[in-house]
Amino acid sequence: MEAEPTEGVALAMGGTRGQGRPMRITLIRPNMNSDRSTDAMEPLVFAILAALTPDDVDLTLIDERLEPIPYDQPADLVAITVETYNARHSYQIAKRFRQRGVPVVMGGYHPTFLPQEALQYADAVAIGDAENLWGQIVQDTRD
Ligand code: B12
What we know:
By secondary structure, the chain is of the alpha/beta class.
């Protein structure tokens, strides 16, 4: 399905949640390079999205500066926070999950500036701040 992005979620997703278990969302903050850091500060977007996520969702936070991406971990949705300097890498990450059938939503500076570009690599793009969007994204994934 294609849609013109407006402010908000640009593309609706079909639900993928199985019956009788919590929905699993993996939130990824991609690294800028292949180095690992030992002292990276947690991205603020993790705290914001975690606070906005309903309690019954099993949320995994992955900061690739600190740890590898668990490509094989089951997920109903992968959410990636994308900045311009890690956009190309983010698209590669998205491709690997989508090849497994896991839907991917992108948000952050880069998809907000270039939603049509991001939509080539994601099932949905969040334009602007998460506060008014994340609940809808979680619900779209459930439905
Ligand atoms: C703090 C900060 C840092 C800190 C990060 C600390 C940390 N905890 O990780 C440090 C100093 C490490 C840093 C480093 C760099 N930074 Co910096 N940083 C910032 C700054 C000042 C604030 C970012 C922030 O935390 N914002 C608060 C959070 C909550 O906002 P947010 O991430 O945008 O998320 C909101 C929305 O975008 C959206 N959203 C974001 N992701 C997602 C995902 C989904 C799924 C959804 C639904 C929504 C969503 O919802 C969130 C809540 O509303 C911004 C400038 C600014 N004023 O925003 C620059 C900024 C992000 N940095 C920038 C850059 C370029 C860098 C560096 C590459 C600089 C360099 N040359 O080294 C490095 C990268 C280092 C690395 N290894 O990754 C640029 C990015 C530009 C771009 N187009 O991508 C910015 C915008 C500054 C600028 N104006 O140029 N940075």
